[in-house]
Write a structure and sequence with these properties.
Elements (H helix, E strand, L loop, with lengths): L7 E5 L4 H11 L4 E5 L10 H11 L2 E6 L15 H22 L3 E10 L12 H20 L4 E7 L12 H14 L8 H13 L7 E4 L7
Parallel strand pairs: 1-2, 1-3, 3-4, 4-5, 5-6
Protein name: SDR family oxidoreductase
Keywords: Oxidoreductase, Plasmid
Family: Belongs to the short-chain dehydrogenases/reductases (SDR) family.
Length: 223
Amino acid sequence: MTFTDTTVSVVIGGTSGIGAAVAKALAERPGRVEIASRATGLDLADAAAVAAYFQQLGPFDHLIVTAGSSAPGGTVVDIDLEAAKAAFDVKYWGSILLAREAGKSIRPGGTITFTSGFLARRSVPGTFVKTAMNAALEATAKVLAKELAPLRVNVVSPGLTRTEAYAGMAGEARDAMFDRAAATLPAGRAGQPEDIANGYLFAIDNPFVTGSVIDIEGGALIN
C-alpha cells in the first residue's frame, strides 16, 4: 500500500513491546502515527471511551491492535472465572469493539490487523484462557474480513518475544527462560519485537492478503 503525507495509522497498545516496534516502523514512513493504550488513558473495556476516541480522530487508514491482557493460567477446574472473563473483556471484546468503531472511519484501501498468539493453535495444559480468546479472535477476524470487505482484516500471531511483558521476572530467570525456548525452536532464537513488527507491515502492504493469520513464532507450531 502507498503511504503519503495524509496517511494515518493507529496503533492500539503502541506504547510498549511489539506495539512500540510497529509504531516505530510506521513512523519511518510518510504520514502520521497515532498511539493509544491504557497508558495513554484508553480503556478497551469502556465502549463509550473507544467510540469517542475514533470520533475525535476522524478518518484514518490503518488500525493495528497489539494491546493484550494478562490472562490467568490454570486448568478449567481451578481457574478464576472472573479473571478469565476480565481477560476476554480486554483482549477479545476490546478488539471487536475497536473493529466496530474503527470500521466506521477507516478510508477505502485501509486495513485492520489484530494480534493473537501461537497458543491459539497449540494445546498446552493450563493455558486454555489464552488459547480460547486468541482462537476466538482469529476466527472472528476471518468473518470480519468478509463483512468489512474491501477493507482488509488480518491477524499476526507471535510466539515468545522479548518484551516488557517479562520485566517482572528476575533478569537471570528471564534470560534462562528465553535460552531454554530458543534451544527448542527450529529458528534457534526467541523473537524480538522488530521481528513481529514486520508481520504487521506485510499485512498492511500486501493488497492480496485478507482473512489471514500470519504466524511469526520461530517454528513453535511445528515442534
